[in-house]
Write a structure and sequence with these properties.
With about 600 residues, the chain is of the alpha/beta class. Among the domains are: about 100 residues, Gyrase A, domain 2 (2-Layer Sandwich), CATH 3.30.1360; about 160 residues, HUPs (Rossmann fold, 3-Layer(aba) Sandwich); about 90 residues, no CATH class. It is built from 20 helices and 14 strands. The protein has a five-stranded parallel beta sheet with strand order 7-6-5-11-12, sandwiched between helices. Strands 1-2-4-3 form a four-stranded antiparallel beta sheet. Helix 7 crosses helix 8. The two termini are about 45 Å apart. Bound molecules: arginine (ARG). Keywords: Aminoacyl-tRNA synthetase, ATP-binding, Cytoplasm, Ligase, Nucleotide-binding, Protein biosynthesis. It is an enzyme of class 6 (ligase). Its main location: cytoplasm. Its EC number is 6.1.1.19. One of its GO terms (biological process) is arginyl-tRNA aminoacylation.
């Protein structure tokens, strides 16, 4: 890229600077340096400029020169005059970059007619599978599944926005031994259900499951029948399949209620889907010589996983009774996703408790040669949701919380907060307004509380914290958006019609700081697209609202003289649009008033 068109390019700032940096490295030190990492990051302190490279320090050994000397030579070759003020060398040999106000203003002005706010679609879209949510039929859909649902949906939204082709898959547990007991129990309590549709209202399937499990635990005869039922299911016996379908339908309806509440789009492709492919997993592992028979079971001995005696741990692929495991299904799924779906990136979103499972399955698939070099496979893991007592989240009476109740309570509390505020402010609003606002605030609060945490840590579920109007919360973010809309209402401004010659002018410190941040959306999304930590996007948006508030406190908008007023209105509008877009990628809808 040449120096004249930088302000028209919508490449992220970091990508743009990296590009120039790589050229300078080659110009200064030869082709050998092609591909060397420019080590460019946003600075932690504005007194070091906006971006910093510590490549000169990293390259000192390799080039046999002092870092500061390397920095000098680099700067001479570096052509960034259209983007930055002259780069400065600092400390032991850092290079600091400060963006030019004209560059910032030109880039941001172009966002005025750009719905993507400068975020370019990726040049090489990857077909990606996000395996998330994935609850188990007839078992509780618990807060772990809630986290997977929220995080997985957010990751899918971001990758889709970046231009990747994403397949969202719900790997529901619809094919386990639990069906043996369920169906045996069904035969006992309502045999008609096996032959006629709607003969039985299964009501709460989880309660039904508990009763079946109880029978299983206390009655050996029932156990025997259940095992037999699993075999019949796996061999496709018609009446058993009918019963199985009935159970799945019931669960599906219950899951859908949650997905509707959370605005989740996902395609069900449960474990049963891979049933016919399991035998060939065994055969093919056998062919590549990985399969070992151990006490009647067929297993692969793992590298790097040992039992207490230091012996390699086996991953059981087929049990001695011929049955298959959770891992076998995942092996079949990996092959299907790579070969049939042609996916180049496989993402699995589950709790950290499954880290070993995925590491083992990935290892076996890799050793079997099923994962080509150009395919990435990643377990996106997350920590536990805890109650305010730091223990597993429970109801007051000690039961597990139903997700439905948890979400309803968030909405009820959001409503109570809103009604109190309306009363305080003496405002009258329609029931429709209140219900809609409570719904959006309540659900957003739950999502945001989850996404804003570093996903690998445990987090404490607190309605009070997540619904607070202050702090890194959904209500705070939604309110920042509403605040800007308030400006346009108050000044009777149509943000879409600020005039074709409207220009951004950056004079005040807070304007510059805000402008720089507005330009970092693409870098923030790039980061999340790579390492799949949604909290980085939350942090970006939180800082954006803080920087906006600082700007708005210092710089009069509606009272400013004309050209400055237009420029500031543009900054307000860009902030609002960035918030709206960013929140939508978190799965959160904004309100125009609240
Ligand atoms: N059903 C599993 C559970 O509830 C999660 C499945 C995750 N996806 C996968 N491909 N294993 O723990």
């Amino acid at each position: 890229m040449n120096a004249t068109n930088a302000s028209q390019s919508s490449e992220g700032v970091i990508a743009q600077l990296k590009n120039r940096f790589e050229q300078a490295l080659i110009a200064a030190f030869g082709e050998d340096l092609a591909g060397a990492d420019p080590m460019l990051v946003p600075t932690s302190n504005p007194k070091f400029g906006d971006y910093q490279s510590n490549a000169p320090l990293a390259l000192a050994k390799r080039l046999g020169k002092a870092p500061r000397a390397i920095a000098e030579e680099l700067i001479q070759q570096l052509d960034v005059s259209d983007v930055c003020l002259p780069p400065a060398i600092a400390g032991a040999g850092f290079i600091n970059f400060t963006l030019k106000p004209e560059y910032l203003a030109a880039r941001l002005s172009a966002f005025q007619i750009d719905d993507r706010l400068g975020v370019e679609a990726v040049k090489k879209p990857k077909r990606t599978i996000v395996d998330f949510s994935s609850p188990n039929i007839a078992k509780e859909m618990h807060v772990g599944h809630l986290r997977s649902t929220i995080i997985g949906d957010c990751i899918a939204r971001i990758l889709e926005f970046q231009g990747h082709e994403v397949l969202r898959l719900n790997h529901v547990g619809d094919w386990g031994t639990q069906f043996g007991m369920l169906i045996t129990y069904l035969r006992e309590v309502c045999p008609e259900a096996l032959t006629t549709a709607d003969a039985l209202d299964l009501g709460d399937l989880v309660a039904f499951y508990k009763k079946a499990k109880q029978r299983f635990d206390e009655d050996p005869d029932f156990q025997e029948k259940s095992r037999h039922e699993v075999v019949r299911l796996q061999s496709g016996a018609e009446d058993t399949l009918r019963a199985w379908n009935l159970l799945c339908e019931q669960s599906r309806k219950e899951f859908q209620v949650i997905y509707n509440l959370l605005d989740i789009c996902i395609t069900e492709r449960g474990e049963s889907f891979y049933n016919s492919l399991l035998a060939s997993v065994v055969e093919d592992l056998e062919k590549v010589g990985l399969l070992v028979e151990d006490q009647g079971a067929k297993c692969v001995f793992l590298e790097g996983f040992q039992n207490r005696e230091g012996q390699p741990l086996p991953l059981i692929i087929q049990k001695s009774d011929g049955g298959y495991n959770y891992a076998t299904t995942d092996l079949a799924a990996i092959r299907y996703r790579i070969q049939q779906d042609q996916a180049k990136r496989l993402i699995y979103v589950t709790d950290a408790g499954q880290a070993n499972h995925f590491a083992q399955v990935f290892q076996v698939a890799r050793r079997a040669g099923w994962i080509p070099e150009d395919v990435d496979i990643e377990h996106v893991q997350f920590g536990l949701v805890q109650g305010e007592d730091g223990k597993k989240l429970k109801t007051r009476s000690g039961d597990t919380i139903r997700l439905r109740d948890l979400l309803d309570e968030a909405v009820d509390r959001a409503r109570a907060d809103l009604e109190a505020r309306l009363q305080e402010e003496g405002r009258q609003e329609t029931e429709e307004f209140i219900a809609n606002a409570a719904q959006i605030v309540g659900i957003s609060a739950v999502k945001y509380a989850d996404l804003s945490q570093n996903r690998t840590s445990n987090y404490i579920f607190s309605y009070d914290k997540m619904l607070a109007l202050q702090g890194n919360t959904a209500p705070y973010m939604l309110y920042a958006y509403v605040r800007v809309q308030g400006i346009s209402r108050k000044g009777e401004i149509d943000f879409q019609n600020l005039g074709s010659d409207a220009k951004i002018l950056l004079h005040e410190e807070t304007e510059l700081t805000l402008a720089k941040h507005l330009l970092q959306l693409e870098d923030a999304l790039d980061q999340v697209g790579q390492d799949l930590f949604p909290n980085r996007l939350c942090q970006y948006l939180f800082e954006l609202s803080q920087k906006f508030n600082q700007f708005y406190d210092r710089c009069p908008v509606l009272q400013a003289e004309d050209s400055i007023k237009t420029s500031r209105l543009m900054l307000c509008d860009l902030t609002a649009r960035t918030l709206k877009l960013g929140l939508s990628l978190l799965g959160i809808r904004v309100l125009e008033r609240m």
